[in-house]
Structures are given as structure tokens and as C-alpha cells.
Design brief:
six-stranded mixed beta sheet, Rossmann fold, single chain, globular, 7 helices, 26% strand, alpha/beta, 218 residues, four-stranded antiparallel beta sheet
Length: 218
Amino acid sequence: MIRTRGLVKRYGAHAALDGVDLSVPAGSVYGLAGPNGAGKTTLLGILAGLKESTEGEVTVAVAPGEVAVLPDTPRFDPWLTGREVVELALALGAPGGPGPARRDADRVAEVLAQSGLSEAADRRCGGYSRGMLQRLGIACTLVARPTLILLDEPASALDPQGRREVLDLITTLRGQATVLFSSHILGDVQEVCDAVGILHQGRLLFQGPLTDLLVGRA
């Protein structure tokens, strides 16, 4: 699904990514772990087509319209309801444009329910908590049925309940799409991922099944 070879991204003399060889299997939930400043956001930006690499090869084996991206701090017009936000995401992201109104309404309701937002769907999102906004963002990535979902620090800066809700939601994505999400909290990655990559100072120090990482730490 995703493969990079010798991926380098420089900003002047600084190498944000330095020879990254990443491999993300199709259908997996892959966690990219590392401290702040490790290069996680830069790597996701390149995979999403939002940034250009300096050197190396990047293969993302899906059509551009089948990739959904959620930044670390999603922002929505506060006067829109959660339902309206997801409806807009579907209108912008659905291949070929919006479908029949009833089918689209059913799909919006489905992802709002999956995200635990059914009861808040018709409230203005300006009154949502940070955790609710993160889950609304994930609902937006899901609604057009993408093949690949990229989530940048989706549980960052949340209180324990908000983090729990977001991680539970990510767990439900298994089998729906290939999911790559970043986190500076290794415990979050351990909890929901099939495979993990450890990024530090722009270098990929470990990559493989989560069980291999846990055995190595034992």
C-alpha cells in the first residue's frame, strides 16, 4: 500500500527525514511513533501529497481521491453543526460528487454513529469538546469511504476520556481502510496497531509487527 525508499526531506541544512524506508501493508492499522520533532508530520505530509520530498522514492498505491487526511488539530466553522460538517466532507470527497440525497444522508448518519456523535450531530460544533472535534474529524475522513486514512496525532492533547474515545474509534477502522496514524505516546500505538514504525530525529529506527517490538523490549 505504502512504500518509501531512501526518503529524505531537508529544510536548508536540517534533515527532517533522513533515509526513511517505510512499508505499510494494505489493510493494516500502522502506528508511527516518535517524540515531537521526529519528522512524523513531515512524513505524513509527503505521503498525503501535501509536501515534496528532497530525495528518495514514494509509492502510495491508491488513487489521490481515495486518500483522507486529518491534521493534528482539525478546525471547522463553529456555526456549522456536526452533521453539516460531515455532509460537506462527503460532498467534497465523494468520487464523482454527491450521490442520491437519501443514500448520502444514511452514510453521514452511519459515520456520526460510528464516531459516537449521533446525539450531538445537530449541535453547532463550536460547542464541541476537543475530543469530540477529533472524532468529528475522523468521521469526515471516513464518510467518502477512502482506501487510505492518514491521522496526525489524533489523540494528542486530549484528556484521558477523550483519548480513550479516539483510540476506541481508531480500533473500529480495522478492515475498513488502511490506517496510518502518528503519536508521540507509544502506549497509544501499542493499544490499537498491527504494526509500528519508530521515528527519531528523522530516521526510522524500527519497523515491524507490534509483537516484535514488545519482545525486543521484554
